[in-house]
Each structure stands twice: as C-alpha cells, then as structure tokens.
Amino acid sequence: MAKAGAPAAASDNIVLADGEPLNLRNRHLAAVLAWLLPGAGHFYQRRYFKSAVFSICIFSCFILGMLMAGGRCVYASWDQTEKRWQYVLQAGIGLPAMPAAIQAWRLRGGERPLWSENFMTAPRSTRDLDDFNRKTASGFDMGTLYTMVAGLLNILVIFDAFAGPLPPPVAKKREREADEEADPGTKPKPATSAPNVHAKT
Amino acid sequence: MTIHMSIGYLLLYLPLLVAVSLVIGASRHEQKHLILDQAVRTAVWISSFMLGIYLVLQIVSWLV
C-alpha cells in the first residue's frame, strides 16, 4: 500500500497525497529551491496554492521580525562578543538571511561591509548589543523569535518539497478501525506508523 | 501576585499563530479544504495549550 510522503514503486518522484498521485518532478532541485526562497520549490513543482501559502506566511514572519527589531536581529557572529546560535535557525529561510553571512565573512576578513553597517551586521561590542536591546525594547527579542520561527517553518517546507506531505498523526484506535474497515477478514496488525488517512490505493 | 496580560503582546502572537498553523496544515495535506481544516485544528490546539500554561501560571501566582 502506497502511503502519502512515500515514493511509489513506479517512479521515485510520484507520491500519494490525500489520495491523489502527486508528481514532485526533480525533488532534489525542488528542495534546494525551497531552501533558497520559501515557496519557490513548490512553484517549480506546480503546486501553486501551497507555494503562495508558504511564501506569504514565511516571508511575513521574517519581514515582521525584521521590522520589530529595526532590521538588526538577523546577523551572524561566533566570537567572544556573542555566539549567535539563533542565526543557524534563521538561515533556514535561505537567501533572505544570506546577507548576514556575507557581512560577517567580510568583517572577519577586515573588509568593509558590502551593504550598510546597520544592515545585518553583528554588534561590535557588548555595549552595542545592549544598545540594540535598549533602542527596540522587546522588539529585538520578538524580531529574533519571528525570524527564527520563519527559518524553522521553512525546514518543514523543504521536507514537503522533497518528499510530499507528511502523514498526519492518527490515533492507534482509529488506525485499527481503518484497517478493519479495509480488510474485515484479517486480524488487525499492531500499528507501526501513522498512515495518511486520506490515502487510497 | 497576579500575572498582568498586555494586549499588545497578545497581538504579537496572532501573526505567528496564523503562519505556523497554515504552514503546518499545508505541510500535511495537498487539498485546500484539508489544509485549512488542519490549520484551524492546529491553531485551536496551540491556543488551548498556551491557555493551559497561562492558567497554570495564574494559579501558581495566586498561591504564592
């Protein structure tokens, strides 16, 4: 029985989703596109509604976060001033967070920032970091949270572009009932995974 | 001691709730109505969970 999110035998790029076959086209390329720009992978796969949902939701989160923090919450830094682990999650959004890595790389090499010194650059000292926080009040923390959530959500999107929709969790009781309904003569097997209840073979 | 809620902070929770619910819904289904249905259930679940945490904190704050 083919499941949603699992490759069917006929082709590695065809999966069952909500009972319908879904062509993921070149799934590796789609995953890379989904990382680079949220929604781009789904656009390439001609899943236009999902592409719009993903891009609107994720870009809105990212932009709102940047606005709340005055554009200062996304930056890469791993030195004595600050170990910015949050950037690892923010980088999940792909290209929109890349300028921070470029700025950090240039500053580390002793060069001038490629863009404005206030655009995605790390604070130079702990005093600068305190200033960030003081000027934006809680906006700096909220902006960091919003941009981190945007990056994390894009990881779900990358997975969806690569493998199709995740099977929704199904209670074991409901799973047994579905098994019995499908094949009333056999004894139901113990549940090992959550099947997509909408998938039909 | 009472926990004071700020409406401003609560408003900050709405965009996140909408975005997270829709993305989770869309990552589990392909059809529009199933996506929206899953998004609503996710939003209700997240809100209930947060309300539960709020109530626990409120009770603890009354006791202390």
Number of strands of chain A: 2
- Count the helices of chain A. How many? 8
Number of strands of chain B: 0
List the helices and strands of chain A in order.
Answer: EEHHHHHHHH
Distance between the termini of chain B: 7 Å
Structural class of chain A: mainly alpha
**Structural class by helix and strand composition of chain B:** mainly alpha
Mean pLDDT of chain A: 84
Ends apart, CA distance between termini of chain A: 6 Å
Helicity range of chain A: 40-55%
Task: Name the helicity range of chain B.
Answer: over 70%
Written description of the protein model:
- The complex is a heterodimer of chains A (201) and B (64).
- With 201 residues, chain A is mostly helical.
- Chain A has a domain at 25-163.
- Chain A has helices spanning 27-36, 40-44, 48-68, 86-90, 98-108, 126-136, 139-163, 172-182, and strands at 14-17, 20-23.
- Chain A starts with 13 loop residues before the first strand and ends in a 19-residue tail after the last helix.
- With 64 residues, chain B is an all-alpha fold.
- Chain B has one domain (8-63).
- Chain B contains two helices and no strands.
- The longest helix of chain B is centred in the C-terminal third of the chain and has 32 residues, at 32-63.
- Chain B is elongated, with a radius of gyration of 15 Å.
- The mean pLDDT of chain B is 90.
- At the A-B interface, helix 3 and helix 7 of A face helix 1 and helix 2 of B.
